[in-house]
User: What shape does this take?
Amino acid sequence: MINYEPFLTHLQALGKASPQTIRSYRHDLKLFEDFARERSVSGPAQIDHALIRAYVTWLREKVNPRTGTPGMADTSIARRLAAISSFLEYTRAEDPNLRNPLKEIKRKWQKNSKPNPVDEYDLDLLLASISNQRDRMLFTLFVAAGLRVSEMQQLNRDSITIEVERQPNGKLRAMGRGEVVGKGGKRRNFYVDHNTLRAYAVYLKSRTDKEPALFISERNQRMSVRAMQERLAHWCKQIGFRPINVHRLRHTYATRLANAQINSMVLKDLMGHNSFATTQKYLKLSDTTLARGYFAAMEQVGK
Assistant: This one.
């Protein structure tokens, strides 16, 4: 039996992994443990190249219980392999003779770091087609606040504070502000624009339950991360779209702000990234923005 619990306890003690990350690691390692047990693998020393390759093949052929289709996406496979690799590196600290075959295998299934925002036309059509008020508010807020799904899942009704400021033209404008615990237990602020706040107020007014969670299931319990993803897949199917991963809404948020010429370092903080290099991967400027920047720069050069 492969005992991975000490590794998860170690991660938790370091405080560098959120509860959602710990749950994901446990799920991924349990899946690998079940696979390995069926092949009489009883410990980390028996994990070799052949077993990892067999596991990848198994994942690619495994039927997805949610969609009924065979094959796991390469990004999902990469996540599961990363969990195994981290576990083996932890184990090697106590047994230097132990090998980590994942460090030696060239992984063609590594995550594609290129941004993949949802097309604006498709996004407008999707949101307009959602008849469920909770779901429409949920995905509108994803795009407006740029939160990770684990961060969205932790929001309560009172997580967003509404402030009103007077603009230079004398008009009043509402702004939303909140705080979440992101990756590594790091706290960060997020903001909500006034248009989304109007929809947020309407949504809260429609709630008749007493649950503190901002988004709840049909059983009046806090919505799970999986449920949020499944609801997005449901509405995509309703209008004939290919399933959209919730994380692509975060890509869309970043791309919108980049095309609005927001300061890149400000975007880094809004996204909750530790490294600016990570933020750069999310930036995919539109042709219009690129052209505007080019001609503006050339005008300055010509002066």
Notes: The chain has two domains: 5-103, 120-242. The first helix runs from residue 5 to 14. The chain has a mean pLDDT of 82. The radius of gyration is 22 Å.
